Sequence to fold (390 residues):
Amino acid sequence: MLQNQQVTVLGAGIAGLTVSALLARHGAKVTLLEQAPTIAEVGAGLQISPNGARVLHVMGLGEAVGAIAMRARAVTLLDGETGGRVARLDLERLRPSGDYWLIHRADLIDALAQNAAQAGVALELNRQVSEVRLGDHAPHVVIAGEERHDAPILIGADGLHSRVRAALNGEAVPFFTHQVAWRAVIPGEAGIDSQAQVYLGRGRHLVTYPLRGGSLRNLVAVEQRRKWAEESWSLTEDDPMSLRAAFKDFAPQVRGWLERIERPHLWGLFRHPVAPRWFGNGAAILGDAAHPTLPFLAQGANLALEDAWVLAESLARYPLSQALQRYQSLRETRARKVIDAATSNARNFHLSGIGRAIAHQGLRTVSALAPERLVSRFDWLHGYDVTAAC
Fold:
């Protein structure tokens, strides 16, 4: 279905690079438009769980990504104020065959960009899309307010503020969750353990894990607050004293990491509704453009990888209209389930009072007596193989 088919993809992030490469390998002539002047991405870590890693493996990237990522041995929940262990999900022992990777976002972007280039994707940088129009016959985009680019098939991988999503659904108004997040990367320390650690506090939590062989430590700190913060991943810097003040009651180890942060980035966490329409008039959306999720299950990148696989496979096997209907049908229910679970995790991380004490004691008991139960709670998420299901 895709042999010599012209496809335009907006956005050279994880979703856009992945779907572009997959479509090109099915024979499509893919043009990938990116608004930034370079494809490099700075400064953040992410977690790839087995459900996302399976897509990278079938793309032929498993060995390359596995070599630059760190394999997470465990996820450990700790009391933020005392530093004491609450629970441990021992991935190395209980899920030894699973690829739980801790990777610098820039390293994954680089691997995906090389893969897309090898597949024959035509990447055009510094292409500022000012408008998306969905006509009766084929969509087109307007670049820099004047240049028209026709797109027989248009795929929006253009993130939270997607122009393709808006063209399909109209403008959506997100709502502030009354949570903000700081992120930063600092130099790692000797003997850093290859695990993700979640420090749980009253109305706040902090996640940390190593990157690049332990030479770096990734930090994401979340606080509940009334004050609004601009929704942005990288453009808003905050005074590091504000971050340190928010976590002043946390364990000395956490405070020590925060003392080393000089320029934290701050963004407000907003809930965006899942798009009602993921396709129409020759256009489709995926990843954050279709279903933004809060970061409390580390599934944003993994959902993007899953989406890209299903969208590319559907377009390769079926006529356009049927393919796009199949894509949304196969993906929407799972995306909503993951989003709901991430939202619940936010509440669980920030418990206070007697509820916090009861929950933490329950986790300690289960972790000690039945650790498999803790890990198996996520089998529906991490055990899913989209490459076999599609």
